[in-house]
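Backbones bend. To wit:
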Amino acid sequence: MLKIKPSISLYLLLAGMLLSIGSTKSERFCFRIYLNDKGVSGYTIDNPRAFLSQEAIDRRNKEGIPVDESDLPLAASCLDTLVSLGATPVVMSKWLSTVVVECEDSITAHKLQSLAIVDSVRLVWKGEQRLTSPVADRDTSRLLPVDKPQKSPYGYAEAQIKMLNGIRLHEKGYRGKGMKVAVIDAGFINVDRMAVFESLDLAGTHNVVNPGESVFSDDDHGTRVLSCMAANAPGVIIGTAPEASYWLIKSEDNNSEFPIEEDYWAAAAEFADSAGVDVISSSLGYFTFDEKELSYLPTMLDGRTTLVSRAADKAADKGILLFVSAGNEGNGSWEKLTFPSDAMHVLTVGSITQDKERSVFSSIGPAADMRVKPDIVALGTNCAVADSSGSIRHANGTSFSTPIAAGLGICLWQALPQLSNMEIARLIQRSSSQYDRPDDQLGYGIPDLYKAFKTKH
């Protein structure tokens, strides 16, 4: 298994930084532990039903993907050893053999590093309070759109679906029925109250950051993202996959920006795998953090360096089709893609305007190893979304071009279930407007989802 080991100098830099800062009684730290191995858990790949859900097994069987050692859980004995040194497990990844632990003082990092089971240790969070406070009871009244209905059944969203030739795919009867989708985002305020989601097929919710708490509070970014796919209010807004089944997963800590959110994202992807989803759509990206010493460099955009990018590729290895936003740094000092959009086996989605030009904010490629990125583009400037009030707003961002494209990718896979996730990804690329001449602005260009469908019929 590939492990990215922080160099000794980096480790000492982080340790020195922590010691020079010192710690107050209220300050706490989280460290990512890279394990040498998972230990002896008692599970074997010959009996996957003991540790994988039937849904996850069914998808692997459908796509001919063998169960391997990355699917095995971490041994309880490994966790017990970490706990014995005063470290409390927060979140873990069986795919990447990592555990994030919370500690009262930074000295614990030195103790953890000395363990035989530990390969390396990295600071991923520090602060006075990691978890948000429980949310009080919310209003449950129904939220109706105030917008004037349009002549088109797609309402204000017609242009963004038509641009990808998705209406014709819908007319063939492919609107996502039978497909399972995970939306990994920051929060889904009022999705459970909004009339535009009245027909939403909600498979379930999961809060990685605050286990047990609702995802229908704290942030409305996921609400707007979800509306691009799942809204179904004729004359007002219809999303690109209104009949799919959705898991809503919160992985973003809205209180701060630290690498621990990569670990939350990886856990969200593993949960999505266990739920048996076909597709993940994620409009989150990382590159800079509250502690500058933890931030990344553009040279790291190789799909192999960051934990979140490796987790995204692992999800693809398990047969999941991933759509990931390129990022909104195109007119900033970073300019480039954000992580995990550099991952090798995800469809990275950039943003264009109604004139089919790159949105000024849309992050550009290529990846650091010169792979084509972004892969495709969709409307992300002035696109129609439903906000947490239940009404239509026009918004900008690759956060929205991504679910617009993802929803139609879901419909395409519904139409062509005999294909694998990677075959669907390549088919979408080949249908795109500049497949023969990709660049670092639009990648392969604007996909034509009906054209992709017709090539197999």
Summary: The longest helix spans residues 398-415. The mean pLDDT is 93. The chain is about 25% helix and 20% strand.
